[in-house]
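Inputs:
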Amino acid sequence: MKDEQTITAVQQRLLKSRQGKAKKNEFTGRFIVTVAAIIMIVATISITIFLATKGLQSFLVSGVSPIEFLTSTDWNPTADENPSFGAFPFIFGTLAVTFLSALIAGPIGIGGAIFMSEIAPSWGKKVLQPVIELLVGIPSVVYGFIGLTVLVPFMRNTFSGAQTGFSLLSGVIVLSVMILPTITSIATDAMISLPSNLRQGSYALGATRWQTIKKVLIPAAIPSLLTAIVLGMARAFGEALAVQMVIGNVRAIPDSILEPAATLTTIITLNMGHTTYGSVENNTLWSMGLVLLILSFIFILIIRYLSSRRKL
Amino acid sequence: MELAEKDAVFNIFDMNLWYGDFQALHNLHFSIKKNEVTAIIGPSGCGKSTFIKTLNLMINMVPGVKMSGEIKYQDRNILQGSVDLVQLRKEIGMIFQKGNPFPQSIYNNVAYGPRIHGIKQKKKLDEIVEQSLKDVALWEEVKDRLDSNAMGLSGGQQQRLCIARAIATKPDVILMDEPTSALDPISTLKVEKLITKLKEDYTIVIVTHNMQQAARVSDKTAFFLNGEIVEFSDTDSLFSNPSDKRTEEYITGRFG
């Protein structure tokens, strides 16, 4: 009888201590992940607030007209008389390189993805996967350097329209290579994650491989494929360094893709060093940053919309 | 070797199949007759799904498969030489375990087969879609929403849509690989009724886990065990008077 009592007492104590420990672990784990989440949220919110206040200063404090900023093509912030703050050429340049590079990298990336998932799943993946990882690993300054050394002289010598070789097209080509891995890897995941019974259903009806890819698999994957392209574009429009090295950085809207241009990011990186904090010019650079933030917000909304359309 | 039966759609002689080194089917030898429902029953892993996939060569999608022997379809051994898979699968439709409609409109699902086989006129396609959907008793349920996505249909409707999609190419044979295993009893009943009706125009081979189903819908039944045919005969006699001890044990539920 007494023995039994001791045993139950010991059992209870063990049970309790284990519960206590579990509770403590539970709390610690919860605490760590909550703190991590809070840090991320706070960082994002503070950056957004900071960028918004700084970006709006050129309009609220320095008196730059927002309409002029967004629509005028005249950029001359350091003129002694009547400085002008038209950032439209840079907004145009940003949108132009983004869309044109997506136009080049989109089909190539999706083509590569289909090759890997449908045509040669085994060796295709073995060869293309490392290629993609390598492309991701190359720093953007190296891309720019290669563009500057190889692409710019090539443009100059090949096209009579490209006088210097620094051009919108050079920027677009460099960016296309840079966003290719993003598009390819997301598109590959999209194709691979399609249920195999779609393929079976199509083959069982006598469809060929190409008919299956074109009429069943691509339509089924379209929301994810578009997401891949949009994410590639998001990377393209934020890229500064490599583009800056090959695009020419002029203040006018180019007449053709062979002429030099500039983007919001290239103007920010070029000018942030020599403007004084609080000056009108410095403030307008922040406004460009704000425009980039808003653009990226729009990209996120597009991705969200596309993801919600996924049916499978 | 006995002569090929005249009204047989498939004549199978000494057919063997290996996945790599593993032999999954052993010396299969039987015939599948025209306008009959042939059921294939047996425990999991007995090779019944493997077998049905050889009839339209869907098995070729599995890497490392080797086959020997004969499956004669229209006087040709489809296991040898280059077979026109497009034509073969146009004539031999297949229904899978789970309805697998394409995430497209109901109309496009049914029209898919005819389109890939070259029918382009809208009027002709409209006719085929309507007739196929009527044949599977789905027309009344979906005629007002042919343009809506097929993924919005219920599981039973999806499976019937897949049957409509298969018969839209006007096949001779319909293969069904456990077509009701993912369906509720009412949907199952509808599909079974459909099978009985489709028998008038098509030859049907059905793999099923459900012995009552085999008894209800089929004319002939083959009992597979470990990749061999243990017994093949009229469904009634196989279930009421099995000649092999193992068949008896299986259908009385002693294993499997």
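The domain at 88-308 of chain A is CATH 1.10.3720.10 (MetI-like fold). Flag for discussion at group meeting.
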